[in-house]
């Protein structure tokens, strides 16, 4: 414990240094008050753009985002950290190969939530033990906190047209984390510029039209219901038919609007071993994944963010990617999966088979129709046979 009384500037500087020692490549400190974006957030929810992510729309959750003091009474300051997770594709030809799936970079190894939260709690404990008594809470993604707004208030970067928080000269492949504390500290200057300029590469590149550009107030807007990240991770039910052909081979999450962003030329490989791609997650064979059992799923994705989609969600996504590949090579695996125990999987497999002009597809679809009991799957099979 330090013996002399530290000034707020000294305390903030020590927190920044300690956070960097803990591996956080970015750290900033911001005053906390009511959000400047509360109205924009409520409008976004009002328009239904959050889709089925009900946790974003709960009345108490909206109120907490409007004012973090509702979330943690007495909150005065936010320590905001960034952790870089970028790693280049091990095999650069994989993304363009439609027989292989693309897993978003953030999900190629361990789940960042646990790793970052643990470190943030350790940082808060250290502040308590070494600097001054504080009360507060750490958040990584799952709390009712507008993390990107706090990050730009803490000087880390700007909220870009693709809605990501970009750090100048460092890019956007950074996770964010926040500790809300009940003490006054010395603060970083907010980041107030928009460095997107006239660029709109992300809006043009988004295959599903989820990015809507900036509104009249300058807020970047996204219709999450159309975002591949939402469709492959958050959505529990069927993927809308009109969006399936636009998803290509993205089977879990999506990085397209980051891949095309010129600021990500500055991305450097993450120092965290936990974010290096696990074997088989960098361009996996779609055919192999299509017949994955529950046991294989549980073993392969232990500690991975992919567990969130559950086996049925992942196989739904893989079926869509196989349909987009459209190769007869995929038919045997799809025919097996047409008898999967999950209706969600069977229905998307039926859609995929309908996109592969092959006699074996028609025979399998007709045979399944004779025994299929789920009304939605029957409708998918009929649509596929009609399109034949
Ligand atoms: C819900 C959610 C999603 C949803 C919706 C995404 C979205 N753009 O809203 C879905 C499932 C689609 C998603 C996808 C992804 N996500 Co996400 N997601 C979240 C979550 C939990 C909440 C975001 C939210 O509240 N959205 C609602 C919108 C309205 O809020 P907002 O994006 O913050 O937008 C603000 C602006 O509109 C702003 N605003 C209002 N007026 C004005 C005016 C001006 C001038 C400006 C500049 C701004 C502004 O106000 C809003 C509120 O502050 C956050 C964690 C968190 N608690 O913040 C992670 C988070 C945003 N996600 C993250 C990541 C990594 C991803 C993916 C890259 C994962 C992937 N590879 O698939 C993709 C990226 C897709 C994309 N382009 O956004 C990171 C982003 C890190 C970063 N550097 O920005 C976060 C911060 C998680 C974390 N802790 O690291 N995500
Ligand atoms: S993550 Fe993909 S689908 Fe979502 S907005 Fe970006 S490019 Fe579009
Ligand atoms: S691609 Fe261009 S417009 Fe989109 S976030 Fe990057 S700099 Fe901004």
Radius of gyration: 23 Å
Shape: elongated
Number of strands: 10
Order the strands across the largest sheet as they lie in space.
1-2-7-4
**Could you estimate the helical fraction of the residues in percent?**
25-40%
* Helical segment count: 16
Description:
By secondary structure, the protein is an alpha+beta fold. Among the domains are: 8-86 and 108-181, no CATH class; 285-388, Alpha Horseshoe (Leucine-rich Repeat Variant), CATH 1.25.10.10. 39% of the residues lie in helices and 11% in strands. It has helices spanning 8-21, 38-46, 59-66, 68-71, 112-131, 147-153, 201-205, 228-234, 256-259, 286-290, 294-300, 310-325, 331-337, 343-354, 359-371, 375-387; strands at residues 26-31, 77-84, 102-103, 136-139, 158-159, 165-166, 174-181, 211-214, 220-222, 250-252. A 4-stranded antiparallel β-sheet has the order 1-2-7-4, with helices on both faces. It has a two-stranded parallel ribbon with strand order 3-10. Strands 5-6 form a two-stranded antiparallel ribbon. Cobalamin (B12) is lined by residues 37, 40-41, 44, 53, 56, 104, 106, 140-141, 145-149, 159, 162-165, 172, 174-176, 217-220, 222, 224, 227, 229-230, 234, 253-255, 257.
């Amino acid at each position: 414990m330090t013996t002399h009384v530290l000034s707020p500037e000294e305390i903030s500087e020590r927190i920044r240094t300690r956070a960097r020692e803990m591996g956080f490549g970015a750290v900033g400190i911001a005053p906390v008050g009511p959000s400047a974006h509360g109205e924009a957030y409520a409008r976004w929810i009002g328009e239904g753009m959050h889709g089925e992510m009900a946790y974003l729309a709960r009345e108490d959750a909206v109120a907490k985002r409007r004012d973090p003091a509702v979330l943690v009474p007495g909150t005065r300051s936010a320590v905001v950290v960034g952790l870089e997770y970028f790693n280049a594709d091990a095999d650069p030809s994989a993304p363009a190969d439609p027989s292989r799936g693309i897993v978003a970079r953030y999900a190629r190894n361990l789940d960042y939530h646990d790793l970052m939260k643990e470190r943030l709690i350790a940082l808060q404990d250290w502040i308590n033990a070494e600097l001054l008594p504080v009360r507060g809470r750490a958040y990584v993604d799952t709390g009712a906190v507008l993390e990107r707004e706090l990050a730009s208030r803490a000087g880390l970067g700007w909220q870009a047209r693709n809605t990501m928080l970009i750090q100048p000269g460092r890019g956007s492949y950074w996770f964010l984390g926040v500790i809300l504390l009940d003490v006054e500290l010395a603060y970083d200057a907010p980041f107030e510029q928009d460095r997107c300029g006239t660029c709109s590469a992300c809006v043009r590149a988004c295959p599903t039209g989820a990015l809507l550009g900036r509104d009249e107030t300058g807020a970047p807007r996204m219709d999450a219901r159309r975002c591949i990240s939402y469709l492959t991770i958050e959505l529990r039910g069927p993927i809308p038919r009109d969006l399936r052909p636009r998803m290509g081979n993205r089977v879990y999450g999506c990085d397209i609007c980051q891949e095309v962003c010129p600021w990500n030329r500055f991305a450097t490989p993450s120092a965290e071993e936990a974010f290096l791609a696990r074997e088989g997650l960098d361009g996996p064979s779609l055919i192999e994944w299509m017949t994955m059992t529950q046991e294989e799923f549980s073993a392969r994705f232990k500690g991975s963010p992919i567990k969130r989609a559950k086996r049925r969600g992942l196989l739904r996504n893989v079926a869509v990617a196989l349909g987009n590949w459209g190769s007869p090579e995929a038919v045997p695996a799809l025919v097996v999966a047409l008898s999967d125990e999950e209706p969600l999987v069977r229905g998307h497999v039926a859609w995929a088979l309908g996109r592969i002009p092959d006699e074996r597809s028609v025979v399998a679809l007709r045979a399944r129709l004779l025994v299929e009991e789920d009304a939605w799957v029957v409708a998918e099979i009929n649509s596929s046979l009609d399109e034949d």
